[in-house]
Amino acid sequence: MNFLDLIWLIPLFPAAGFAINGLFGKRFPKAVVNLVACGSALLSFVFALGAVVQLVGLEEHSRSHTVTVFEWINAGLAHTSAGELTRFRIDWGFLLDPLSAIMVLVVTGIGFLIHVYSTGYMAQEDGYYRFFAYLNLFMFSMLTLILGNSYLMLFVGWEGVGLCSYLLIGFFITKRSAGDAAKKAFVVNRIGDW
């Protein structure tokens, strides 16, 4: 199996976990919510590990692999500074290189461990499924930020991480302090964006 060509699945697994737990998690028993959330994080780690092993096996000068999922923005022809016409196009794609390889292993490996730890830590809380949906969305956003093949993809991941920080910090919606802390995190992220 060529894991390098499947790097687009690494962020897709947590996105699927978010969708499944977000839409149906209220009806699922906690064991199914755990299986979906932790299983998607584990699948991401396995695919990331396989891709990194294959990347290390490449020649040193060619340790960069890009996968284009689809054409996202096509603005047609544009003039360059030299007066030439060029096509302005941004793809929804993912790039794995030595730096992103290290980060993808950290995020998927530690992310999986956080998911497993949270199954016990959050066991008695209301909105259990919602917490794991947010956690999977956070992992999807972080992986999009790390693996994005353009600045626009990086920005999408960054904004997703900011949104998920807000959602996770304000998880306890009945506590005013949680809401205040979530708003503070949101404002700090906006300052960071600026």
- Describe the biggest sheet? 2 strands, antiparallel
Poorly predicted runs: none
Mean pLDDT: 90
Largest sheet, spatial ordering of strands = 1-2
Distance, first to last CA: 42 Å
Can you characterise this structure?
- With 194 residues, this protein is α+β, with helices and mostly antiparallel strands.
- The chain has one domain (3-193).
- Helices cover 64% and strands 14% of the residues.
- Helix 2 runs antiparallel to helix 3 and helix 2 (30-56) packs parallel to helix 4 (128-147).
Write the layout of secondary structure elements.
Layout: H1 9-24, H2 30-56, E1 65-79, E2 85-96, H3 98-121, H4 128-147, H5 151-169, H6 176-193
Antiparallel strand pairs: 1-2
Helix pairs in contact: 1-2, 1-4, 2-3, 2-4, 3-4, 4-5, 5-6
